[in-house]
Write a structure and sequence with these properties.
By secondary structure, this protein is mainly alpha-helical. Helices cover about 40% and strands about 0% of the residues. This is Exonuclease domain-containing protein.
């Protein structure tokens, strides 16, 4: 998902971390470290990334 975000955002992979992603992409679920909760959180992030169309920056 890090690579997907970097590609869509036009950023180098080394500049990307979950904390650098726009808040609207992240799951609203609390991170619990329970396997099922974490899997749902990751699925929501993936779905949000797939639907995301960033606003192009530049001239």
């Amino acid at each position: 998902m890090k690579t997907l975000y970097a590609t869509k955002a036009g950023l180098p992979l080394r500049a990307v971390a979950k904390g650098t992603m726009p808040r609207e992409l992240l799951s609203r679920r609390r991170h619990t470290h329970h396997a099922l909760d974490d899997a749902i959180e990751q699925a929501e992030l993936f779905a949000n990334l797939m639907a995301w169309s960033p606003v192009p920056s530049g001239p």
